[in-house]
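AI-2E family transporter
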Amino acid sequence: MNMTLKFQAMICAVVILAGFIASLYLETDIFYNLAWALTGLIFFINPVYPESITCLEGKKARRGIRIAAAIIILIGYTHGFGV
């Protein structure tokens, strides 16, 4: 199944919202951080980009999405969002 950018963004929004609710309910910030790291992992595994990007080659666009996903994973693991 090929996921579109819109569908994958909705999945990531649900994951982040679930992590936020779990962090509030359990009063620990690790779930919110893990939700951001999981979001980055989703985009790292399946790098999707808008169809309107025609000036970039697909290979370069996927590489850029994977670099951005790695940065999101790093921020998710190192930054204390709830502090």
